[in-house]
Amino acid sequence: MDYALVTLFGRLWGSFCNVMIYRIPREIPLGLWKNMRSACVHCQAKVRWYHNVPVLSYVMLRGKCADCQKPISWRYPLVELLCAVTFLVVYLVHEGRAATLHGTTSWIYWADLVKNLYFFLSLIAVIFIDIDFRIIPDRFSLGNWVIALVAAFALGTPHWLDALIGGLMGFGLFFLLAWGYEKVRKIEGLGMGDVKMMGWLGAWLGFESVPLIVLIASVAGIIVGMIAMRRSEEGWQTALPFGPFLALSAAIVWFLAQMTDVPTL
What we know:
By secondary structure, the chain is mostly helical. It has helices at residues 2-23, 56-60, 75-102, 107-133, 138-155, 160-185, 192-205, 210-231, 243-258.
């Protein structure tokens, strides 16, 4: 029953993740304080509540708008399923590790679980926003940097000093890389969105995670970049968003940290 509820919870937040992915880069209000129902991107018809059930509605409507019958992007159910699976996996990992440290009835256990679920929800949103718009919104980079520091003070995971150093280390390292690349090549290599995101990830996972995040993201970026350059007419000028690589590497580092006994991660 717990697993079913977590999966359902993940699908519901996956639906909201789709809202963030679509609205935030377009500077459309999320509708948290004012009701703004979702609408078809083709005909602008408001989506009825029974047509807005995560995953299930897409299947029942056969991937088409109920009003204009134009196709609904397959990415909507993909994001919802991805959030559902991610929430379940994070819950299972967290349950096995945190329960031995705090007990499942401790407020720290539940607060840390919410923090981790939000972390992965943010990573998923950033991946798709950066792929579409080549930007990483400040409400994620800067906002999550603040949340990471506040959570570190409240929960001690990582220690607040570790989080502070990690944020400064991640930001500073990427800022120097971006500045040096632009000076040498006369073109932008890393955007400030990537720089600020690295600060957020360093604060969230601690300074010990920064080198590994950079290493995994760089290797993955090089591999995918080489494949993209071979297939693109732009060759060496082919540009790829780096946010998805940072997000995926941060997820890997988080899972690796749960398998160790390092108390600061």
